[in-house]
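Q: Can I borrow your eye for a moment on a structure tokenisation matter? Would you mind producing a protein record, from residues through to fold? Write it directly below this note and I will take it from there.
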Amino acid sequence: MAKAFLSVGSFATQDVITNILSRVSVTDGISVEEIQNQVEVALMAERYYTVAKAYMLYRQRHTEDREVRDKLQFLMEYCDASNAATGSKFDANANVENKNMATLIGELPKSNFIRLNRRMLTDRLKEIYGKELADKYIEMLNDHFIYKNDETSLANYCASITMYPWLIGGTISIGGNSKAPTNLKSFCGGFVNMVFIVSSMLSGACATPEFLMYMNYFIGQEYGTDYFKRA
């Protein structure tokens, strides 16, 4: 706190420090972050606005430094791990057999996505049920009393989609430029493009239950409806 005063060209006397700290309440089990939050409020209450801003920026820089240090530590541990599941800190994917640069890059933002997803969910819980229940939800998560799956991405996980919009309009509605299929060749090529586009918006698998039914139609158009008799 004294450094925050010095950073703005001021000096905090003992009386000033005492007045600020008189507004801070420290109890057993309180975290450093909670104390620092109280210091920010105390500085604002004592009308040291410039110092409060400097103190907040100081905390932010240290938070960023800690996050970078933690990520560097994770990089080292991931490289030393025997496999991708062991190296993963938040969400070990059993489908990933080998660790490489691609799997490492996928691991780095997971902690940020978890915080963002929890914030969005707790904001919604506060809106519907109130702050007490939202805080209880986070407490139960942290105590491992409950488990929330798929927190490491903003995208939906697996999905089963209908192919009908693509069948009549192509991929334009989902950001592509392919037109609706007109024959077996354009059906197969367009299908690959459509699944690729949709899968890029998902974290898991993309199922297309109608594929065989539609493919049967286009094969019949090209080889006759009794094509299966000559297979």
User: Anything to note?
Assistant: The longest strand covers residues 159-160.
